[in-house]
Write a structure and sequence with these properties.
about 300 residues; alpha+beta; DNA polymerase, domain 1; three-stranded antiparallel beta sheet; 9 helices; 8 strands; about 15% strand; elongated
Length: about 300
């Protein structure tokens, strides 16, 4: 198997791959267009030959959007969190591939993308009971545009057909609890397993994943503060611990009421673990089951 390059115009190259049909033994050629320097064209030629020899080669004129998106998902797996990667795959399999997946990548047009968004808004729900929300279609658009931008960088496309205007999202004011509602929430949770999580969320502003990741070693009851150093997320493979959403640790001052409740919580947790022969350590989670295992976020 051989490959060569031929300059068509300044900075524009034809990559010619010479190979033989395994069924007939006849020689055939595959042509690829490439823009860049001569050295870059030579490197691309070598890469294509390697793909042909390794069985991973797909002819640009025959690659469908669904095939490309599968390849793209493999490419970004190491660049995003496991939960984000799962979410990308769900959106692609559920919404993008059914509507546009059969289209040959190089024949995908901006008009088709816009029409797909319109259909999704009108009747894109899987249960057939109406359309998707503008926010969901906006997520679809963001993922498709990001994926096709990679196709442009890989020189499988000359331009991004998802470079269209997504549906407009109406910004709704955030709903928050006032002081009386916060008190009602705390009292409703008192005596339940949700009491400490509710206090941490309502009084300290901790997110759900930060609450379930919180360990006793991060709390200094004498100093009246805790350190938010991690968060959790649930994926198809289970619960994993990760850095906080902002990527930065922070220290939170504890109200005196919460300090007292946390002291009592630690006593109850110590007693529960002793009943099953386990000693409480600073490495245990604050929000945990009676056997000491952390409560998984939903």
């Amino acid at each position: 198997m051989r490959g060569s390059i031929r300059e068509r115009s300044p900075g524009r190259w034809a990559i010619i791959l010479d190979l033989r049909d395994p069924a007939t033994g006849r020689r055939k050629r595959k042509w690829h267009s490439f823009a860049g320097t001569k050295r870059a064209a030579q490197i691309e030629c070598a890469r294509l030959i390697s793909e042909l020899q390794g069985g991973g080669y797909l002819e640009p004129s025959k690659v469908t959007l669904a095939q490309f998106l599968d390849r793209w998902l493999d490419h970004i797996q190491s660049q995003v969190s496991p939960r984000s990667h799962e979410r990308y795959g769900e959106i692609i399999r559920t919404h993008i591939s059914p509507s546009l997946g059969a289209v040959v990548l190089t024949k995908l047009r901006a008009e088709q993308v816009s029409q797909a968004y319109t259909k999704a808004l009108a009747g894109g729900r899987r249960d057939g009971k109406g359309g998707l929300s503008p926010r969901t279609v906006h997520h679809i658009h963001r993922i498709l545009k990001q994926a096709l931008a990679q196709a442009v960088r890989w020189q499988m496309l000359s331009r991004n057909p998802a470079d269209v205007d997504p549906p407009r999202i109406e910004r709704k004011p955030m709903q928050t609890l006032d002081a009386d509602q916060t008190i009602d929430l705390i009292e409703a949770a008192r005596g339940t397993a949700l009491f400490i999580p509710v206090l941490l969320g309502a009084l300290c502003g901790l997110r759900r994943g930060e609450i379930t990741a919180l360990r006793w070693r991060a709390i200094d009851l004498d100093a009246g503060q805790l350190a938010v150093v991690a968060s959790t997320e649930q994926t198809g493979e289970g619960v994993r611990e990760k850095e906080t959403k902002s990527g930065k640790d922070r220290t939170v001052v504890l109200p005196s009421m919460l300090i007292d409740e946390l002291r009592q919580c630690r006593v109850r947790q110590t007693e529960a673990l002793l009943r099953i022969g386990v000693r409480l350590t600073d490495n245990h989670h604050v929000v945990a089951r009676e056997d000491g295992e952390p409560i998984q976020p939903r």
